[in-house]
Amino acid sequence: MPCTVRNPSPTLSNPPVKFLILRFSSIGDIVLTTPVVRCLKQQYPEAEVHYFTKIQYRTLLEENPYIDRAWYLDGNLGELIPQLRREKFSYIIDLHNNLRTLRIKLALGVRSYSFPKLNTQKWLLTNLKFNVMPLVHIVDRYMATVAPLGVTNDDRGLDYFVPYRDEVERDWLPTTHRAGFVAYAIGGQHATKRLPVARMIELCGKINYPTILLGGEEDFEAGEEVRLALGDALIFNACGKCNLNQSASLVRQSEFVFAHDTGLMHVAAAFKKKVYSIWGNTTPLFGMYPYQTPYVVLENNNLTCRPCSKIGYAKCPKGHFKCMKELSFNFEIRESLP
């Protein structure tokens, strides 16, 4: 089947207003849309809020109490269009704004509100280093998309809901980490968003507090290098051992969080954790820094080549990778520890 649906609403004689929210990727981007979901549902309590994303992101929607019905793309979008038409949506909230969402909007033919991606401004910043980006967080830009509907930001920040089955008990952790730990999300979709392993080791050595490394199976080898360099008393490598919800549970239990520009940074913000955000080829100027939570930005501003991409690369285009190799670890964390 091309999609999976959960919690279908009962048939009503007077169908309620129906919103269809579109956002197909990625983990962090979807987490950043949660204030829109919550505010829509709470400010239109009789409405149905539907959310459409790719099936690999279903974990992000399944426990969200503000979503009445979730749709998951798992195949040919054309096979889904007739099903979406039958829902007779009142409005489409397009928080992705690409060719796929344009196709959906044209096919359904209902009123839509679309998120401005600011691609021209991002191009000017990455290619000409000419900054005309607005000083507005992307969440507030998402919220501006639904402002014509009278929806306002409740200023409660981001949401992330961990199901009970994925809560990580402290007894599961090594004894060295049960009294308290720092979480470090070492992953990143692109290599130029991640510290080199040698610098991860340096960073964890500076933290000098029991630290849990979080990431996918692809990050396990890097995590092992850090663990072997610093020892089990300091480092627990959980990369590839936890699903996303379990990683989120550990983030919530941590004292604070170090993270590259990646999804777990925004999960940490949802739990109001203090975040030490590490930036390589990308920049907080794109408006995706930690939202409504205490944070410290670690970035190298002594380069004329940065930012070089709004997303990232497999390797540094200049070959030197100074944005990460020469990044200063000039921060203090003792006041944040128990």
Give a description of the structure.
The protein has 338 residues and is an alpha/beta fold. It has 2 domains: 132 residues, Rossmann fold (3-Layer(aba) Sandwich), CATH 3.40.50.2000; 172 residues, Glycogen Phosphorylase B (Rossmann fold). Helices cover 30% and strands 14% of the residues. The strands form 2 sheets. Strands 8-7-6-9-10-11 form a 6-stranded parallel beta sheet, sandwiched between helices. Helix 4 runs parallel beside helix 5 and helix 8 packs across helix 9. The termini are far apart. The N terminus is likely disordered.
* Mean pLDDT over the residues: 94
Sequence stretches where pLDDT stays below 50 over 5 or more residues: 1-13
- CATH homology-level superfamily of the largest domain: Glycogen Phosphorylase B
Compressed to H and E, one letter per element, the order equals EHHEHEHEHEHHEHEHEHEHEEH
Q: Give the helix/strand class.
A: alpha/beta
Distance between the termini: 50 Å
The rounded Rg comes to 21 Å
Q: Find the count of extended strands (DSSP E, 2+ residues).
A: 11
Largest sheet: 6 strands, parallel
Envelope shape: globular
- Order of strands, main sheet, comes to 8-7-6-9-10-11
Helix count, DSSP H or I runs of 4 or more residues: 12
How is the CATH topology of the largest domain named?
A: Rossmann fold
For the record, what CATH class of the largest domain applies?
Answer: Alpha Beta
Strand content: 5-15%
Number of spatially distinct domains: 2
